[in-house]
Q: What sequence folds into this?
């Protein structure tokens, strides 16, 4: 076995020295679930003043409400204390600014092989996609009307959220 992960495992040992989440349950203590993008500029807990233990977080490219996101939200609502859901795509997201052909071309160049078969969930109109996604959550038969659902755009340049849906 090589040691490509040594730096991270070492950091983990330091982390564990002051670990205080032992015996903590897995529910969302603040009642929050967040669906957002995988983008490394997003810190989903801190940007809304939360801490580990407070929220269920589901991330994917673009922060889309996919079938798997809905699965996570249904579990969150019924088993994990979630009563407010935020769907948060962001500005300057590759999934909203590039076309599928462009992404396939760029990935193909990086991979040195054909990537034309790879699916990418690009959106051409981010606001419309967000409205659709919020509607999908609100209309899900297993997500009751008592659960509040909000759609927000996160600005990666200012850190600000703006309500859209
Ligand atoms: Zn993104």
A:
């Amino acid at each position: 076995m090589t040691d490509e992960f040594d730096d991270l495992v070492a950091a983990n040992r330091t982390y564990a020295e002051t670990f205080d989440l032992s015996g903590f349950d897995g529910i969302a203590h603040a009642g929050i679930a967040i669906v957002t993008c995988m983008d490394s500029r997003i810190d989903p807990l801190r940007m809304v003043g939360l801490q580990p233990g407070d929220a269920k977080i589901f991330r994917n490219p673009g922060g889309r409400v996919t079938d798997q996101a809905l699965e996570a939200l249904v579990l969150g609502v019924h088993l994990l204390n979630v009563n407010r859901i935020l769907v948060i795509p962001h500005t300057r997201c590759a999934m909203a600014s590039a076309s599928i052909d462009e992404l396939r071309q760029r990935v193909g160049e990086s991979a040195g092989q054909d990537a034309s078969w790879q699916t990418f969930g690009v959106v051409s109109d981010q606001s419309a996609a967000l409205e659709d996604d919020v509607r999908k959550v609100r209309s899900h038969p297993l997500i009751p009307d008592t659960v509040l659902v909000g759609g927000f755009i996160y600005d990666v340049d200012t850190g600000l959220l703006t309500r859209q849906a």
